[in-house]
Amino acid sequence: MAGDRGTTSSEFLDRSVSSIRMDSNVARNGRLIDLVDTEWRQEKLPNDSIAVPAADLPDAEPDNSNPQETLREQEQKWTDLALNRIDKNVPRAHSS
């Protein structure tokens, strides 16, 4: 037990809690040290211009929508609700 060796229960608890690995703890094993050197750190990616279709870009002026959604994703919402066919599927009143 914890008290048998002169350790208090709070010290025992502190040690057991600190040994639990959490998401915020970093486990470093040192294998990547050989891969990163000064030359690698100074390398920069090329500043290429990549052509992106306008429908795949986020909306430049989002009103009440998510600014991260592309125009294509916003248009897809309308088709998900079938609002593009709302005038074709008008329910008729049944007489009883």
TrEMBL record:
Protein name, entry field: Anaphase-promoting complex subunit 13
Listed GO biological process terms: cell division; protein K11-linked ubiquitination
The organism of origin for this protein: Trichonephila clavipes (Golden silk orbweaver)
CC per GO annotation: anaphase-promoting complex
Family: Belongs to the APC13 family.
Localisation: Nucleus
Keywords for this protein: Cell cycle, Cell division, Mitosis, Nucleus, Ubl conjugation pathway
Keyword Signal found: no
Gene that specifies this protein: Anapc13
Region annotated Disordered, chain positions: 52-74
Signal peptide (UniProt feature, chain positions): none
